[in-house]
UniProtKB/TrEMBL annotation, chain A:
Belongs to the complex I 24 kDa subunit family. PROSITE patterns: COMPLEX1_24K. Gene3D superfamilies: Glutaredoxin, NADH-quinone oxidoreductase subunit E. Its cofactor is [2Fe-2S] cluster. Binds 1 [2Fe-2S] cluster. This is NADH-quinone oxidoreductase subunit E. The lineage of its organism: Bacteria, Bacillati, Bacillota, Clostridia, Lutisporales. GO terms for molecular function: 2 iron, 2 sulfur cluster binding; metal ion binding; oxidoreductase activity.
UniProtKB/TrEMBL annotation, chain B:
Belongs to the complex I 51 kDa subunit family. This is NADH-quinone oxidoreductase subunit F. PROSITE patterns: 4FE4S_FER_1, 4FE4S_FER_2. Gene3D superfamilies: 3.10.20.600, 3.30.70.20, 6.10.250.1450, Glutaredoxin, NADH-ubiquinone oxidoreductase 51kDa subunit, NADH-ubiquinone oxidoreductase 51kDa subunit, iron-sulphur binding domain. It comes from Lutispora thermophila DSM 19022. One of its GO terms (molecular function) is metal ion binding. Residues 543-572, 573-600 form the 4Fe-4S ferredoxin-type domain. Keywords: 4Fe-4S, Iron, Iron-sulfur, Metal-binding. It holds the Pfam family Fer4_7.
Length: 166, 600
């Protein structure tokens, strides 16, 4: 409930959700696309939106939560400003992705899956980004960084922090 | 400047930038922009265009320049700076920049070996057309096969043709496609569905993505032909959400086909109707299994169910459904248009046609390759792939992803067909081929795949849910140097039981990476357990970084790069690594210019 601070904001807060619901009939088969749309609009699946989804569609909360927690794409918590998706596919693994993960975790002072205290980065690993010839690879936002080494990965993060100061 | 080959003027240069996912990841958009800028400033008429994957991922960004007389040259590793030079020299002055050319119509290059043994059926239009232009696809025969099928063939004849071609499912299991269609045709019911499995989840595999990004029309047409054959008027493409570009291009292709009357009602003036919808997956490897995939389209948790009834009898929304994967559908138009025998002339007795592989890992020339069935593994790895990228000894190739196995160097003469690959204990799979050299620890590889399958197990079957967890714990212990006598036997017992008692392919094949590494690299397991050594020197708990005093010049580079300050020593004197502090990150070894740091 932390996402709304007064009644006025509350109504706006649900605007995006209303727009999404207008596109679908709200049947069971629409559940995954609806959740995908919510995540795109809000960055994650906020609990109050999910509650509202159940109210409007009549889908049972256990069904909605069952789906939301089954698929790895969905998150129930907001991410940092920049989402790092470090590829842990086979090609990246054999080319040293684990060492890159350790370097990133150390540089950001977080565990894989965590968000930095300043909220700037969330570090996640993903199964395969599909650009195996550039292994090891990570994506920060929409930008892809390939042929990583632990050192190169640290420098990329430092680059983000330095740029903000400018 | 014109954009798009279909608007092309005669006697002009054409510049085509490869903008598949890996081209974009390597900086393709920046190269495209650089060309756009120089072309825009120049008076010379030039057509600028984009295309999908050309296959040579290791040379991305790729740019094709076609001369006014139609001669093609492909440049590799193009940067925005090189783009300017290519434009100046090749287009303005008419002098190609020979040293950057990787493939040309009338010139030999060092990269020709990458193409010489390939045969392109599925990828026939990938990298040759702009995937966002239906006109370019049509100019290269797209939608001719569906026209032939609905105007001149009965559904039974279509099925017969596919049966005769010997096409088997390219998703991995290799079930005869025509047979599947026959069952779905025979099922009673007026409403039937076609489903395309584009949930390519194997880590290290990107064949289907490249086909969808490079030639979405081939898949759409294949689905339409299947729809006509079984009597379905609606199709779903279930695509991985991680493939945004593939989904975007599919949507463009479907819309273009609808506008041309190629999808919708009364297609090409016949009474055949067909529409296609896209469903985006949400990240669950198990949804590659057909019944889980159907559950996911229906909005449920993607959990497999018992078969029978098979989807051909009771599938999507309980209606008869035919499911094939992307590559299977992409083969179909070629078979219908050119005839079964034209397709069946490639391959072996039981495996016909070609297979697309994503060649990755420690391979010199990684990329997307399509080879005739029956080619020896050796020719793919050495003649096409150029051997290992490290120059070190080739150790094994992993085929079939988490369901597959490792084929060791001794079996490199194995030919590529379903049965020969199965005999090694690996599987053909969807086509991921990850090469490993002597620096890769096979116990670690087994642990890697088990981490994956354990995480992706849907949890329905006890043996898969808990059995893979126990296996992973044992493998983790072994790689940490805490392996015990009896661990190998326990692993084998678990493998057998998980295979036998799991409902779906995920569980039944999850032990394969362990079984094949145990079969071919048992000594590595034993070395970890008994001698507490990792022969490949990869498992951190079993190795130590050391300075070779004779070689160390005392340059201090290692001590500066060490993130935990574990290295000490005076300038110009040999340094020392304190192994109690060392986290074994390897940064020192990567930095040392004198090979003075070794792993033991």
């Amino acid at each position: 409930m932390s996402n709304k601070c007064c009644c006025n904001e509350r109504s706006h807060y649900f605007d995006k959700f209303d727009e999404i619901m207008a596109k679908y009939e709200g049947k069971e088969a629409d559940l995954i696309p609806i959740l995908q749309n919510i995540q795109e609009a809000y960055g994650y699946l906020p609990q109050d939106i999910l509650d509202e989804l159940c109210n409007r569609t009549g889908l049972h909360p256990s069904q909605v939560m069952g789906v939301a927690t089954f698929y790895s794409q969905f998150r129930l918590k907001p991410t940092g400003e920049n989402l790092i998706k470090l590829c842990f596919g086979t090609a990246c693994h054999v080319n040293g992705a684990e060492k890159v993960a350790e370097a990133l975790a150390d540089e950001l002072k977080i565990e894989v899956g965590g968000t930095t205290e300043d909220g700037r980065f969330t570090l996640e690993t993903v199964a395969c980004l599909g650009c195996c010839s550039l292994a090891p690879v990570m994506m920060i936002g929409d930008e892809t960084y390939g042929r990583l080494t632990p050192d190169k990965a640290r420098k990329i993060i430092r680059g983000f922090y330095e740029n903000r100061g400018e | 400047m014109r954009i798009g080959v279909s608007n092309m003027g005669k006697g002009e240069y054409k510049i085509i930038v490869g903008l598949g996912s890996c081209g974009i990841a390597a900086g393709g958009n920046k190269v495209y922009e650089a060309f756009k800028e120089v072309v825009g400033k120049s008076d010379v008429p030039v057509t600028l265009d984009e295309t999908g994957c050309m296959g040579m991922c290791y040379k991305e960004v790729l740019v094709e320049v076609i001369d006014p007389d139609g001669k093609s040259m492909i440049y590799g590793e193009v940067t925005p700076e090189k783009a300017n030079k290519i434009f100046e020299s090749h287009v303005i002055e008419g002098k190609p920049v020979v040293e950057w050319i990787v493939k040309a119509d009338d010139m030999q290059t060092s990269e020709d070996s990458f193409f010489n043994k390939q045969m392109r059926i599925v990828l026939r239009r990938c990298g040759a057309i702009n995937p966002e232009s239906i006109d370019e696809a049509i100019a290269m025969d797209a939608y001719k096969a569906i026209e032939k099928a609905i105007k001149t063939m009965t559904p039974e004849q279509v099925i017969e043709e596919v049966l005769n071609s010997g096409l088997r499912g390219r998703g991995g299991a290799g079930f005869p496609t025509g047979m599947k269609w026959k069952f779905a045709r025979a099922s009673e019911g007026t409403k039937k569905y076609i489903v395309c499995n584009a949930d390519e989840g194997d880590p290290g595999a990107f064949m289907d993505r490249s086909v969808l990004e490079g030639d979405p029309h081939a898949v759409i047409e294949g689905m339409m032909i299947a729809g006509y054959a079984i009597g379905a008027d609606e199709g779903y493409i279930y695509a991985r959400a991680e493939y945004p570009l593939a989904i975007k291009r599919l949507k463009i292709a479907i819309k273009a086909a609808e506008e041309r009357g190629l999808l919708g009602k009364n297609i090409l003036g016949t009474d055949f109707n067909f529409k296609i919808k896209i469903k985006e997956g949400a990240g669950a490897f198990v949804c590659g299994e057909e019944t889980a995939l159907l559950a996911s389209i229906e909005g449920k948790r993607g959990m497999p169910r018992m078969r029978p009834p098979f989807p051909a009898v009771k599938g999507l929304f309980d209606k008869p459904t035919n499911i094939n994967n992307v590559e299977t559908y992409a083969n179909v138009p070629y078979i219908i248009l050119n005839g079964a025998s034209e397709f069946a002339k490639y391959g072996t007795e039981k495996s016909k046609g070609t297979k697309v592989f994503a060649l990755a890992g420690k391979i010199a020339k990684g990329g997307l390759v399509e080879v005739p069935m029956g080619i020896p593994l050796k020719e793919i790895i050495y003649d096409i792939g150029g051997g290992t990228s490290s120059g070190k000894k080739f150790k094994a190739v992993q085929m079939g992803g988490p369901s597959g196995g490792c084929i060791p160097a001794d079996l490199i003469d194995t030919i590529i067909d379903y049965d020969s690959v199965n005999q090694t204990g690996a599987i053909m799979g969807s086509g991921g081929m990850v090469v490993m050299d002597e620096d890769n620890c096979m116990v670690d590889i087994a642990r890697f795949f088990l981490t994956f399958t354990q995480k992706e197990s849907c949890g329905k079957c006890t043996f898969c849910r808990i059995g893979t967890k126990r296996m992973l714990e044992i493998l983790e212990r072994i790689t940490k140097g805490e392996g015990k006598e009896g661990d190998i036997e326990l692993l084998e017992e678990l493998c057998e039981n998980i295979k036998k008692n799991s409902l779906c392919g995920l569980g039944q094949t999850a032990p394969n990476p362990v079984l094949t590494t145990l079969k071919y690299f048992r000594h590595e397991y034993e070395a970890h357990i008994r001698d507490k050594k990792c022969p490949a020197k990869q498992c951190k708990a079993l190795i130590e970084y050391k300075v070779v005093e004779d070689k160390c010049k005392g340059c201090t580079a290692c001590s500066r790069v060490c993130p935990v300050k574990a290295i000490s020593g005076e300038v110009k004197k040999p340094h020392k690594i304190d192994s109690s502090i060392c986290t074994k990150c390897g940064a020192c070894m990567a930095t040392c210019k004198f090979d003075a740091i070794i792993v033991e």
